[in-house]
Design goal:
By secondary structure, the chain is an alpha+beta fold. The chain has one domain. It has 4 helices and 5 strands; from the N terminus they run ααβββββαα. A 5-stranded antiparallel sheet has the order 1-2-3-4-5, with helices on one face. Strand 3 and strand 4 form a beta hairpin. Helix 2 packs antiparallel against helix 4. The longest helix has 19 residues. The relative contact order is 0.16.
């Protein structure tokens, strides 16, 4: 979006392409929140999404970045991205891989792949 904004110049607010992109991003963010996910990358650099889950009876956040094929990491509730740890393999195989097919995450990935979300 910023590359396009640079190209457009002073009329960013009036450009229909920018309005459409902003509307799409807003819609995707609302969809994420509706299913309990948290977009954690407001600088739009890595496409980080956290969502709640359980590991060994503890509440945790599973953690996904837009360049990752599958959800493979988690962190404790009081930790952030720097506290990411690999999800135990048995959980990945049994419960987590199906999330990759979730259309909402695909929509967010689409935004990143099409440069809608640029810093």
């Amino acid at each position: 979006m910023r590359l396009l904004a640079d190209e457009i110049g002073n009329n960013v607010e009036g450009d229909d392409r920018i309005k459409k992109m902003a509307s799409d991003v807003d819609k995707f963010m609302n969809e994420l929140e509706e299913i309990g996910c948290y977009f954690k990358d407001w600088n739009f650099r890595i496409g980080l999404v956290d969502f709640p889950g359980l590991i060994d009876g503890r509440e945790v956040f599973f953690c996904w970045k837009s360049d990752e094929e599958d959800i493979e990491f988690y962190h404790e509730l009081d930790e952030g991205f720097s506290g990411r740890k690999p999800i135990p393999l048995e959980l990945i195989e049994a419960k987590v891989k199906f999330i990759r097919s979730n259309q909402i995450l695909r929509n967010l990935l689409y935004c990143f792949e099409n440069n809608y979300l640029l810093y």
